Every structure is written in C-alpha cells, then in structure tokens.
User: What shape does this take?
Amino acid sequence: MRTLIQWGALAATLASCGVQAATLTISCGAVGHEFELCKEESEAWARTTGNEVQVVTTPNDSNERLALYQQILANGSDKIDVFQIDVVWPGVLANHLVDLRPYSQGAEKTHFAGMVANATVGGKLLAMPWFSDAGLLYYRKDLLQKYRLQPPGTWEELAASARRIQDAERAAGNDKIWGFVWQGRAYEGLSCDALEWIASYNGGTVVDAQGKVTINNPQAIKALGTAAAWVGTITPRAVLNYGEEEARGVFLAGNAVFMRNWPYAWSLAQTEDSAIRGKVGITALPKGGANGRNAAALGGWMLSVSRYSKHPKLAAGLVMYLTGAEVQKRRALKASYNPTIVALYRDAAILQANPFMGELSSTLAATVARPSSATAGKYNQVSNLFWDAVHDVLAGRENPANALASLEQQLERLAPGGKWP
Ligand code: GLC
Assistant: This one.
C-alpha cells in the first residue's frame, strides 16, 4: 500500500511536470477467474504509474477471439493497445504486433526458452509469455476409491472405469452422473483435445514440423474412432457443444467422474461453493493403448502490443509488469495459472497451492504443440478444417477413415507444392 501511495505521488509530480498520463486498453480473456485478475493487476499498474487502463472482455472461444482481433487490426485501429494472444497466433498476427525487445531489458531470458522461441517471428519478440496450459485429466478421487479403481493409464482403462462407475452410481439413484466430459464443440478447443487423442496413439500432429500433412494414418483413425465411441455412452451427447467452461460446470457440479481440462479448473474446484472440493485428483491424460504415450496439448497465452497503439512504450510497460514474476506468482496462487518463468516452479507456495505443477512436471514439459509454426499464417484455417472433420466424426455424420482422407486433401490444397505460404 505504501509503495502504491509513493508511486501515486510520483505520478502526480510527473503529470504536473508535463509528462502526460494516458489511457490504455487491454483485451483479456474471461474464462474462470481470468477477467477479474486481469482487471485487478492492470488497475494496480495504472495506479502506480498514474495512468488509466480499460479492460475489455473477449469471447471465450479462442477462434472467435482471433476473428475479433483480426477485424480490429485489419483496420489499423488503435482501439486496443495490449492484446492477450493465444500461443498459436504469433504467425497469424505477426504483421500487427510490436517487437518488444527494446522494452523488455532481457526479461524474456527468465521465461521458458521454447515459449520465447514461439513468440519470436523473424527475429522479433512479438509477445511476452503470460501463462502456459497443458491438457490434464481431472478425476474424482472419492469415486475411484469407492470402486477401488486406480487413475487410468490408457484411454481403454478410462472408458472401462468411467462405464463401471457411471452404471453403478446411476443404479444407486445418481441419475445425472456421466463418465467423462471434455471439449467437443466445433472450435479451437476441440483441435486441442483431438490432437491429444491422436498424438497419444502415435498418430502425429496433423501437419509435421516440416509442413507435411500427416493426418491420414491408421493411428489417427483409431484415435478418432475411440473418441467417437465415448459420445452417448460415457460422455453426454451435449459434449458436442461443450467448451472448457461447460465441461467444468458439469464436473464441478459433481456430475462427471473424469474431465479433460486445462490447469485453471484446479483452483475453481477448490472454492467453497464447489460441490467436489477436496475430492479431485489430477493426472496425465491417458496413453492410446499399451504402446501409446501421454500427450498433453500445449496451450497458453501471451501479451502483445499493437503496432497501431498510440502509446507503445507505456503499453509495453504494462505488458512487462503483467508478465513479470510478481504478478505471475499471484496468478498461480489465486487461480492456478501455470507460470512461464522457470524459477517460479521452485517456489514452495506455488507448489503447495498447485501440487500438480510439481508432480506432473514431466507431463508439463513433454507437451504436444499444435502445428502453428509449420503452417504459420494458415494455422487458423488448418485448425478449422481439423475441428470440423473431427466434429463430423464425433456427431456420427462421417466415419473416421473417410473424414481423415478428405481432411488430408483439403489441407494439401492449402499448401500448394507442400509449401505453407
Ligand atoms: C486454452 C489454451 C489455448 C487454446 C484454448 C482452446 O485457452 O491456453 O492455447 O487455444 O484453450 O480452447
């Protein structure tokens, strides 16, 4: 508080010397605690620097947020100074973002090198990593114990345990219970879930690092067939319209045994109004059969400054503050956001509040990236075709083999001569 007051006085002095205070606008997500935390921390920065910050919310679905940003940026609008951007967008938005290196004073060296590399396009640091995401399997510890089951190691085990618990609980009168909820809507989140299934069966990453379309293969077909069989059996058909928040709603109400979600759901499961407080465990997503691997999609968000901002230096200051260690630590403690600063994974308070951050460190380190680097400016089109094809399979409109054969053709048309422009 004292520091804040001193900074406030300094800002007032600067203002009286003719240094203009400004109003910045930052776009923030609103999934879980995102919006309130972004607002709180941005306002703290505004108070200490004598500026003002307006926080605007954006749609929850990543691809809808991208469409909104593209609309704003295509007009060269200065409406938003700081954008919260998805890890898969640097290639798509590169032309509209400022190089942050002149402002960062090397702070990026304290973040995971892979994330900084992902944020760097053509030698320019287009974003500062803010938090990272990895797909996780949430499970009901109490129900697994009741039925003497271990957390599943493979998708086949997951389906069997989900079925067993669902049937027994329903027979006992718990008629709302389902085995497994996840993200099945036709949107970017489904691309993440489906990538996890496919990679877990060693079926690749849709497009490989060299830009070759790899999606039409027997392992990928098997993975999609496996997931399609969950719908209507252990997974409610309504999952075809679930994003992260819908899945979380069902799980937190106590109506699912297993859930696939990102780390943010952990802190929300521990709140007083959560029906399953203290009953939740987290483990790695299952392997695709005995020869498969644990595959967690790599997600996360970063902060960027718009090329059209009238206050790039101030905006970069806000970005550096929000992505710095102090704010990342608070966000990890309050809302289980995974830090992107390496040293914070040795912080005892963070590990105590979020045991999975320590226990699952190998899962968090061995994530599977979506093919956004290889497909660069075309990533969103690639993902859109992918999630549509998967959605058709899940909804029973198409069989996996046909869906992936035609997806392969569509993707190859996007990259004439095997080259992604
Ligand atoms: C999470 C991830 C992001 C991903 C999105 C999909 O927000 O951090 O990378 O694109 O989920 O729904």
About this structure: The first strand starts at residue 23 and ends at 28.
